[in-house]
Amino acid sequence: MSRLHVVSGKGGTGKTTVAAALALALAADGRRTLLVEVEGRQGIAQLFETEPLPYEERKIATAPGGGEVHALAIDPEFALLDYLHMFYKLGSAGRALKKLGAIDFATTIAPGLRDVLLTGKACEAVRRKGKDGRFAYDSVIMDAPPTGRITRFLNVNHEVAGLARTGPIHNQAQAVMRVLKSPQTAVHMVTLLEEMPVQETADGIAELRSDGLPTGAVIVNMVRPAILDHEAVDAAANGRRTAVAKALSQAGLGGARRGGLAERLVDPLLEQAREHAERVALERTQRSELAGLDLPLHELELLTDGVDLAGLYRLAADLRKQWPS
Ligand SMILES: Nc1ncnc2c1ncn2[C@@H]1O[C@H](COP(=O)(O)OP(=O)(O)OP(=O)(O)O)[C@@H](O)[C@H]1O
Ligand SMILES: [Mg+2]
Description:
Elements: E1 4-9, H1 15-27, E2 32-37, H2 43-47, E3 58-62, E4 68-73, H3 76-89, H4 93-100, H5 102-109, H6 113-127, E5 139-143, H7 147-163, H8 167-180, E6 185-191, H9 195-210, E7 215-223, H10 230-237, H11 241-250, H12 261-291, E8 297-301, H13 309-322
Parallel strand pairs: 1-5, 1-6, 2-4, 2-5, 6-7, 7-8
Antiparallel strand pairs: 3-4
The structure holds adenosine-5'-triphosphate and magnesium ion.
């Protein structure tokens, strides 16, 4: 069973929202989860309607049944300082640095330093145990970088381990990769039922698979309700004018004769229905693309009033029903 849930997906599809809902869902019934934000934008604090999070773990929500959601927003500057600090503490790390050549190290690793710390921090939280010998958190959920950057992000320790061939940095990097490549980790993708995000999802999954990173579920977010059944959609798509006019007049909206109310309503209604039918057809195509990925699919509805705290709990409850326990 995975304990580190990495939530990625195309920008704006709902990664932060879904990660938060998942953290709540997995905390239900007395469990403890840690929600980690890595982009430093305080999205989690906004979502939970709390003060901006400091760079430390703190409880931000109570789950149904008494569970706890803790959160950690990793600040990039603090992260860098933390990492440098770790370097100075690691005695032989200095020697490793010398061997590598400072320039090599800086150009190859510096852009990824932040990522090294972020993934390292998340893995540390996954492995951490309390005095009672039990895991500090039942699950750790990461609001991760978008699809285009996720594989490199998760693989950054692989590069580090290759550069520092022995010593504490090497060992630390390898320990992180061991967690990330194990079944303890699952990388989930959030998508919408639209061509671009679905394509990105497919590409992202292919990339993760070719790099040996563990894929999890696909979460289809902002799903709009189906207003018409299959038959009605077909009728609308084929513009069955007479049938619609007749149905309207049977519904008491005036006679179907020329100039009557039903007659005047027919065309605008058919136009709307046609647009709806088109959307449903497009969504059907995207759904079958997603089914082809051979991963568990979950769906979350579009909350028409946006996601406030109550909405977030609703999404969490919905996710919990669908999530394998
Ligand atoms: N199920 C939903 N129903 C309605 N609105 C939603 C839903 N999920 C997310 N949203 C809204 O969509 C917007 C984007 O969501 P969110 O910030 O979670 O996406 P993101 O993928 O994290 O974005 P970014 O790439 O900028 O980090 C937000 O305004 C959020 O409230
Ligand atoms: Mg986000």
